[in-house]
Amino acid sequence: MRGVLILAPIAITISLLHWIFQSLDGLLRPFIDTPGLGFLIVLVSFFLVGWFASFLPINGLLRLLNRWLESLPGVNFIYTSVRDFFKAFVGNKRRFKHTVRVQLFTEDVWLIGFLTDEDVQDLDLGKDFVAVYVPQAYNVAGQLYLVRRERVHRMPDLRPGDAMKYTATGGAIDLSGPD
Question: Per-domain residue ranges for the chain?
Answer without folding.
Answer: 2-89, 99-168
